[in-house]
Amino acid sequence: MSLKVVPTTPTLGATVTGIDLANVAAGDIEAVNAAIVEHKVLFFEDQHLDPEAQLSFARQLGEIDVAPFGPKHPDFGEMTVLDQVAPKDQGADAWHTDNTYLPCPPSFTILQSVKLPELGGDTCFADMYAAFDALSFELQAFLCELTATHDLTKTLKRAIADGNADVDLASMQQQWPPVHHPVVRVHPDTGRKALFVNGNFTTKIDGLTSTESEAFLSMLLEHVGSPAFQCRHRWRVGTLTMWDNRCVQHYAVPDYTTRRVMHRLTIAGTQPTGPAA
Ligand code: OGA
Ligand code: MN
User: Fold this and answer.
1) pLDDT digits (tens, 9 = 90+) for 88-137
2) Which atom of ligand 1 is nearest to the CA of 123?
3) Best of 230, 262, 265, 266 to mutate for ligand 1, by most ligand atoms within 8 A of CB?
4) Over the stretch 142-175, which tens digit does the pLDDT of each residue have?
C-alpha cells in the first residue's frame, strides 16, 4: 500500500489513506511524520484501532505523555477516555492547545472516535502559523518579545466540578504551578513562528498590566478562531486524527446530546517551548 495524502484546505488538514495504522510498513512512520509537518492535522479514516493498537502506533511517534487528570481507560492507564453526552462548557468547546500548563507541553494528540452521535460533534482545527502570519509586522514584532503565563486552575476546577477529575485542586496546583511560554512559539521542526496563547490555560501576558493583558489576550483569542485559518472535521467511527499542538489549536463543537466516546493519547513534547521568539 502506498500512502495517499489529500489536503483538506490550502492551510491545514489532510486525509491519509493507504496505510493500516495497526500494521505500519517500513517507511510509513517517516511518511506520517513528513505529512504532519506539512498539513499539521491528519485524518486516518477506517482504522478502528483497539487501545493496544492505538498505543503501539502512538509509541512509534514518541513517548506517551500521561495526562495528570481526566478519566482514563480502565485497562490502559495512558489512555484518556472522553465519554460525553453534554459537552457544553466541559473544556474542549473553546479554542485551545492541549495541556500547555505543563513546562513541556505535548507535541501531538492522537484521538480516535469510538462512538458518535448521529449528527454533530465535529472538531475544528486552526493553523497557528497562519494566525501569526496574518498579524501586522508591528504587532508580530511586539508579540515576539513576550511570554505568557499558563495555569491549569480554570480547566481543572471545571473537570473536578463535572466529576471528570478525582484529584485535589490544591495539591495539583502545587505539583503543576503556573508556567511561562513564549506568546509566539518557534516550531522545533520547521523553524516557523506560531501563535501560542490559548483560551483554556493562558491567564496573563507577562509584563503587561492586567487591563493590557486582558485586552491583548481577548483580541488574540478571537483572532485564533477566524474561519480563514480553519478546517472542520466530521468524524466517522474508527477515524484516527492526529494533530500537532505546537502549531494547531482545536475546538470541539458541543452540538450533540447523545453519547460520543473518543480514545485519546498525547505524545510528550521533546523540548521546552523556549524563550520569547
Ligand atoms: C482533546 C480534545 C476534541 C474533541 O482530546 O484534547 O480537545 O473533539 N478533543 O473531542
Ligand atoms: Mn483538546
Assistant:
1) 888 889 999 999 999 999 999 999 999 999 999 999 999 999 999 999 99
2) 8
3) 262
4) 999 999 999 999 899 988 998 888 899 999 999 9
- Cβ pair 197, 220 in contact under 8 A: yes
C-alpha cell at 246: 505546537
Q: Is the pTM of this model over 0.90?
A: yes
Ligand 1 atom with the smallest distance to the CA of 80 is 5
For 65, the 3-state DSSP assignment is strand
- The C-alpha cell that represents 200 in the structure block: 483554556
CA–CA distance, 231 with 229 (Å, rounded to integer): 7
d(CA 91, ligand 1 centre) in Å:
9
Among 97, 264, 265, 266, which residue has the most ligand 1 atoms within 8 Å of its CB, making it the best to mutate? 264
Alpha helices in 75-230 (DSSP H): 128-133, 137-144, 153-161, 169-175, 210-224
